[in-house]
Amino acid sequence: MTRTRITSLLTIGMILLATLTTFGQRLTIPWAQDIKLTWDDFQGPIDPASSFAAYTNAQMNYVIKTAPDGAPTLYILCTFRKNFSWKNPEKLKQVDDKPYLLNHEQGHFDLEEVITRRMRKEFAEYCAAHKKSPTFNTDIEQIFKKLTTASQALQDQYDNETNHSKNKAKQEEWNKKIAAMLTELNQYARKL
Residue ranges of the domains in the chain? Predict the structure, then answer.
């Protein structure tokens, strides 16, 4: 087995380790088309100052490894963070359609996957044009920061336009919009 392959496997292992366990409990869920959130996934402490019934904490994590020939490889994963996502049981009692609200929270997770795919796309485009740039690390960090800012703006737009899922017509529009964005960026989905 080559050194590059071993390094790649170790890197993938490190990322996957982030999705594994602490004290026997899985703390993150990697985004996957066939895995949907459940209310049991929301295990973090409730924000007592929040007026909301639930909060989703999803993020993208990345590692870049360079092969001996100088070729960079990006390993990136979108995860739902159980211990930072929460539900307020008292406020959930006031929600008539809990599956509908859960779908809204799934939308936040799906939007983070959209941004993760954009990161993969921008990384591929950057590498195609600047394989051995002396400013490679700085440039990639700037792309990550730009997309992190874009993610927050997209999440805020989603909540504002749907009124945190209360505007059912807008929520349905966003459900379709998110599905279309995922489909458009499907070639940048995580490969297992």
Answer: 3-188
150: phi then psi, degrees, rounded to nearest 5: -65, -35
Q: Taking the model in full, what pTM does it have? A: 0.85
In eight-state DSSP terms, residue 86 is E
In the structure encoding, which two tokens stand for residue 139, read together?
């440039």
CA distance 12 to 120: 15
pLDDT exceeds cutoff 90 at 15: no
CA distance 171 to 178: 10
Query: What SS3 class is residue 73?
Result: strand
Alpha-carbon span 142 to 131, nearest angstrom: 16
DSSP for 118-175 reads HHHHHHHHHHHH-TT-TTHHHHHHHHHHHHHHHHHHHHHHHHHHHTTTT-HHHHHHHH
Helix (H, G, I), strand (E, B) or coil at 23: coil
> What percent of the chain has pLDDT above 90?
70
Whole-number pLDDT of residue 25: 64
* Beta carbons of 112 and 60 less than 8 angstroms apart: yes
One-letter-per-residue 3-state SS of 35-54:
CCCCHHHCCCCCCCCCCCCE
Could you tell me which residues come within 8 angstroms of residue 154 by beta carbon, excluding any fewer than 6 positions away? 111, 114, 115
